[in-house]
Amino acid sequence: MSEADALRQKDLLVQDALSEGFSVVRVTTPDAIPFAAERLHRALEDGHHATMGWMTDHEDRRGNPRVLWPDVRSIVMLGMNYGPDEDPRALLERADRGAISVYARNRDYHDVIKGRLKLIAGRLAARTGAEVKVFVDTAPVMEKPLAEAAGLGWQGKHTNLVSREFGSWLFLGSIFTALELPPDEAEADHCGSCRACLAACPTDAFPAPYRLDARRCISYLTIEHAGPIPQEFRAAMGNRIYGCDDCLAACPWNKFAQSASEMKLKARDDLLAPELAELAGLDDAAFRTRFAGSPVKRIGRDRFVRNVLIAIGNSERLELVKVVLARLDDASPLVRGAAVWALGRLALERWEVERDARVDAETHVSVRAEWARAQPVT
Question: What does the pLDDT read at residue 334?
Answer without folding.
Answer: 98
